[in-house]
Amino acid sequence: MHKATSLPSSRKPPRPPLSWADEAKKQVGEIEAKAETFAGEQKDAAAERLVGIAAALKDVAGDLDNRDEPAVAGYARDLAKGIGRVSDTIKDRDVGDLMAMAEDFGRKQPAAFLGLAALAGFASGRFALASAAKRERDTPRSVSSRQVVASSPGPAQSAPPRPSPRRPRDAGHS
């Protein structure tokens, strides 16, 4: 048997060859580039969604004018203009600038920041639910849920009760 030797504590393990470090840096750089591209695409998509919301609010303002609701129409028009300005800001800035703006706003107005974050979360949740419902309506099904409900026994057609299985009592134990 030979005795296992250990390195003295003052010695450091050998460094990996430089090519490994270079390869790791290269991969990190590629990941960062992909993340930046993805974030930019999401930023542009968000700006376009806001343009759509602003346009819808302008249409609502026009409908409200036709219904003789000029005060509410004015609010809708002002909101559409504000959303349009936010959209323009998002389009004109890079992701890093937008993150810095959000952090700055969060420090200066924490209550408003949390309120807007909650509102954005609520809006995102509603959007996700509406999108899921639309996909469900648009997806053809082989069996509709009404057919399944109609074929299952309801209160008037309830299945007869089943007897519960009973174990025979052991004569020696009660």
Summarize the structure.
This protein has 174 residues and is mostly helical.
What does this protein look like?
This protein has 174 residues and is mainly alpha-helical. Among the domains are: 67 residues; 45 residues. It contains five helices and no strands. Helix 1 runs antiparallel to helix 2 and helix 3 crosses helix 4. The longest helix is centred in the N-terminal third of the chain and has 49 residues. The mean pLDDT is 78.
User: What coarse outline follows from CA principal-axis ratios?
Assistant: elongated
> Treating each run of at least 4 consecutive H or I residues as one helix, how many helices?
5
The assigned structural class equals mainly alpha
Span between N and C termini?
A: 67 Å
Q: Hey, roughly how much beta strand do the residues contain? A: under 5%
Number of strands: 0
Mean pLDDT: 78
What does the main sheet amount to?
none
Secondary-structure element order, N to C? HHHHH
Radius of gyration: 32 Å
**Helix fraction?**
over 70%
Detail the poorly predicted runs: none
Keywords:
elongated; mainly alpha; 174 residues
Topology:
Elements: H1 18-66, H2 70-92, H3 95-108, H4 110-138, H5 145-151
